[in-house]
Amino acid sequence: MNDETKKKINERYERELNKGERFWPDSIFKDLVVSLGIFILLIVLATFVGISPEAKADPSDTSYIPRPEWYFLFLFKFLALYGQIPLLGKIEWIATVAIPGIAIGVLTLLPFIDKSPNRYYGKRVLPISIMAIMVTGIVLLTLLSEVPTVSEDGSKLLGILQAIAGLAIPVITMILLFLMSFVFKQTTTRVMVWTTSLAAVSMILVSGTVLALHPRPVVEETEVAVTLVDQIFAGQDLYSIHCTECHGDDGSVAEIKGVEGLEGEKITPINSHDVLYTITDSAMYEVIAYGRPNAGMTPFGKAYGGELTKSEIDYIVTYIRYMWDDRFEIPAEALKPLFPPLAKGEVPSYEVHIQPIVKRYCISCHRAGKENNNYLMASYEEILTTGDNVANNIIAGDENSSLLQVIQEHEIMNPEKTDEVLIGVMPPNRALKPNIVDVFIRWIMNGMPQTAVEAAELFVAPTATP
Amino acid sequence: MWKKAFEWLDERLGLKDIYTNLLDRPEPTGNWWNTLGSASMFLFVMQGLTGIFLTVYYTPSPDHAYDSVQYIMEGVAFGWLIRGIHHWGATLMVIVVFIHLLRVFVTASFKFPRELTWLIGIGLFLATLGMGFTGYLLPWNQKAYWATTVGTQIAGSVPFIGEFILKVLRGGPELSALTLQRFFSAHIWMLPAVLAGLMGIHLFLIIKHGESHFPTKED
Fold first, then answer.
1. Mean pLDDT along residues A438-456
2. Do B126 and A17 touch (CB under 8 A)?
3. Are B104 and B156 within 8 A, CB to CB?
4. What is the per-residue pLDDT for A112?
């Protein structure tokens, strides 16, 4: 750039200054208004949208689908689309390093690449068009980041459409724009603007089609207990599933009963002072995570082959502390009853009464993968229709139903071999409280209603019960 | 009384000179697009202030990071607000800085005599992204852990020196306590220092050359 041009630019700027405004107060005023607006926006976002809770980092949980920060999502998507290109797609660093590197390099050196003094939009159609295509692409790739390149049924249609919108159209348009600028120099501004607009619109349309073809999957809500009460509840549920089998629902078991391979094993009750006062939270965490191989306790942490994530083990530790350690005061809300107490003649339902009871006392053994005569209790249907002894297990209105017998501490004997126990008492280690047994009796005697509505209908005519 | 105090200060600080040189400058007629730079700076200051408050409780170790963030959210008075502002401020800052970049590009404000301002501005943009990248790991939750695993992996795909970069970023072959410690250090010391320094030069250059005017057919 020669001195004459520089002089012209400076003179032009002087003229603008003379008919302009003052930095203070004119410009500063606008700046302050915008900053105040942003401040209010931040407070509104922090208060009403907040931050969605996430579980603790767990390096062993390889099933977690990693996603980068939202402003890098477009790069991630670009990488996935680029990977579809035959041959070239195998050379990963072209997409991860070379192309972004070149893009940032061009952006950085822009003042030295575009040396013409022209500033008016109409004289800079090429750079503005390229930037428009790039920004449209970035926005669209960000929006498409949820859509997989190969659908569940193996069809590659979505991937191809995405590659058209996110790679093919932009690249072809840019080549066309360069050709128009440098080879066919007589091309008018109007044609270039039309080309760009057309390309942008078709990118948007193709991406829109992809989004329409692939309805956003229901985002799996990851349950993250945030408050102490939620953590205690989460811990209680997890304890009921994983620990009740051996330690009992209240942690008082000193001799394991009814567990395959550990029958009669002597253990220290985990609700005792000995355990609670001598084992710290982190030690308790580690016992749950590693297990105690010598005492027959298997590892529960995912890192060691178990099922529990770090957060989940933390919840169990919190539950044990607040429930049984007398140095901790459990919040009153965490002590809500398992089910609403029954009035005289009231009929319990599966959803209000049976489900929470089963979850607390039975599911630990009566779930897939455990020794339980194939009797699973995870749902209403399973409770009624599974098990080796399903025929006699639950019979509406029959108090000799096996289930009712065993929870009232009567063993069921094998009818063919009278000295062999077919079904032991349940739960094996400790009898259920009378009010819980009562719930089961009333439920089965009244035909096992599933919903609260069905149960309420039975309540209207209590005389119908035998 | 006030006048006397002002005069005393003016003699020593040169307040009137600051006013005439810094504030009472002529500017070309601007519009609302010109506020994006100051908005970015405002967001940087907000991030700085809320970030400083967060370090009071935050512990950068894998054992305690998650719990300390939980504690900020649940136990500390208005901790949720401070962290909320920091969280959303980060998102807004990336958006605002990017739109600011686009505005400068579209009006060609990077041309003579403001080339250096543009170079510094790109540095600021990259440093902002770096702040986002390093800050994302700090809560040590699943999202953070895996996003950083993937992010560092991508940085590690550079031919020849990729393995070295990966090692520098992670402080070892895997994400560990060292990674968290160095991301924390980069997030609260290195990158803010870079940002603040570059911002100083950026502002100096803007005052020196004045804001560019919006181009017309003449330009």
1. 84
2. no
3. no
4. 93
Give the ipTM of the model, two decimals please: 0.93
**What are the CA-CA distances from residue A451 to residues A346, A353, A358, A443, A444 (Å)?**
13, 10, 15, 11, 14
Mark which residues 67-86 of B lie under 8 Å from A by CB: 70, 73-74, 80-81, 83-85
Rounded distance between C-alpha atoms, residue A187 and residue A181, angstroms: 7
Task: Tell me which of 3.30.470.20, 1.10.10.10, 1.10.760.10, 2.40.30.200 is the CATH number of domain A228-335.
Answer: 1.10.760.10
The correct CATH number of B35-138+187-209 out of 3.30.1490.20, 3.30.1050.10, 1.20.810.10, 3.40.190.150 is: 1.20.810.10
Residue B50 has pLDDT above 60, yes or no: yes
CA B44 to chain CA centroid, Å, is 5
d(CA B4, CA B19): 18
Other beta carbons within 10 Å of A214: 17
C-alpha to C-alpha distance for A23 and A19, rounded to whole angstroms: 13
Place of tokens 């949980």: A61
Report residue B35 as tokens.
């506020």
Tokens 């006699």 label which residue? A392
* A283 touching chain B per CB within 8 A: no
Q: How far apart are CA A278 and CA B111, in angstroms?
A: 71
State the smallest CA–CA distance between residue B33 and chain A in angstroms: 10
Q: How far is CA A135 from CA A128, A129, A131, A177, B99, in A?
A: 10, 10, 6, 16, 10
How far apart CA B124 and CA B195 sit, in angstroms, is: 6
The dihedral sign for the CA sequence A41, A42, A44, A48: positive
Q: Which residues of A touch B27 (CB under 8 A)?
A: 17, 20-23, 26-27
Distance (Å) of CA A21 to CA A28, A440, A441, B31, B112: 11, 83, 86, 11, 22
| Residue position matching structure tokens 């009244």 | A446
- Contact at CB, B29 and A21, closer than 8 angstroms: yes
Domain extent listing, chain A: 1-51, 56-213, 228-335, 350-464
Chain A hits for B19, Cβ within 8 Å: 24
Nearest to B82 by CA among B107, B47, B134: B47
DSSP B47: H
Q: Please report which confidence band the pLDDT of residue A220 belongs to, taking 50, 70 and 90 as the band edges.
A: low
Give pLDDT tens digits for A113-125: 988 889 999 889 9
Helices (H), A301-430: 310-324, 355-361, 380-385, 390-393, 402-407
CB contact A399 to B (< 8 Å): no
Confidence (pTM): 0.76
**Residue A169: per-residue pLDDT:** 94
For position A101, what pLDDT does the model report? 92
Residue A306: what pLDDT? 83
Decide if B30 touches A, using CB distance below 8 A.
yes
B165 Cβ under 8 Å from any chain A Cβ: no
Longest CA–CA span in chain B (Å) reads: 70
Report percent pLDDT > 70 for chain A: 96
DSSP string, B28-41: ----GGGGHHHHHH
Average pLDDT, chain A: 85
SS3 assignment, position B194: helix
